[in-house]
Specification:
about 350 residues; alpha+beta; Poly(a)-polymerase, middle domain; Beta Polymerase, domain 2; 5-stranded mixed beta sheet; 3-stranded antiparallel beta sheet; binds adenosine-5'-triphosphate; binds magnesium ion; EC 2.7.7.52; NT_sf; transferase
Length: about 350
Amino acid sequence: MLSPAAIGKAILDHHASLIGADLSVKRVHDAHSLVKNSLDSVAPDLKLYTFGSSTVFGFHEPKSDVDFVALRQEDIVDGKGGDSTSQLAKGLQTQVLAKLAASVRQKNVQWAVEEVRRARVPVVKVKAPHIDFDITAHRRNGVRNSALLRHYLTQVPENRWLSIAIKSWSKRVGMNGPVGGYLTSYGFNILVVYYLLHRRRHEQPEVEQKEGQDGAASASVDGKQQKELTFIDKDTLDVSLIPPIPEYLALEPPNPETLGEQVLDFFDFYLSRFPMESHVISLSHKEPITKQSLNWTKTAEDMKNNTSMEKVFYRLCIEDPYEVNLNVGRNVSPFKFDLMKKHFVKGRATALGLL
Ligand code: ATP
Ligand code: MG
Ligand code: MG
């Protein structure tokens, strides 16, 4: 069996380029000014916000896209407001994005600019020479959910490595991606944060819990102290208090053994401790919640799939913290759910496929 230290070391070796590299948010700033330049010529009153991984991690990953959203002043002032999903709201977003896409095309003729109008969230996808980005409009939820994940992952900065490791593994094994994929990076990040918040639950009662010196609770995993996360009320996240471009967060190397232990325990949690069949992975509630309580049941699944084009599944249930009644794991069919469990078993046994 692989030792936690060997697993942690393999992960750090794989991501060696992240340690001490010139990680920064410079690329994000550069892309931001390019998009802002186009936005200013069509809708100068809109403010451009960044979200997604560059916000969550506080640096720009070499191969990742950057997510932008153009927000109106009223969206920012009402920074805790919910996003409308009406056809009218979507129509307004599509109009702004069409103008923006035209301007981006005109100013950067060699870039590939694609407008996706019919998706749940209208988006413009841009492929530029060194960077890809997605642009949406008038929607605060991405800014809020990214800030929520960032707040969680910075409570104990070493935990950022678990997120980096799981996300990159999910991409290597082909489980990550909106079309044909199982979950997005966003979904995997929620799995990581939920695990970190609830790993002491569904566990043996003899586990010691004690208050850490800094007030954060610590708990013993295999006799070693790991700092526990504090629950954050997601409703407190307010766009008017979130910076439009994320502040850079230096990435310190973690203790390899702790990282290895976390990876093993992450898989153990989802393979055997968390009651996946009956419960929902959710950052919205402090206490565990059931599928039944959200009406995310087989019957609801069948009813939805009889009436709508996009299939929705309630096997792997991950409640979006801000979207109403949205399962982030909605693409995970029973077949993919089984395959995913197999990937988890294999990921555990092979140090995320690295050993
Ligand atoms: P990557 O580097 O793979 O792009 P990322 O951290 O940017 O990772 P994405 O999965 O691209 O993560 O998600 C970016 C944003 O898109 C999220 O903050 C969220 O608002 C939205 N999103 C992604 N997946 C979903 C989903 N399954 N359901 C609802 N919203 C989603
Ligand atoms: Mg992204
Ligand atoms: Mg994106």
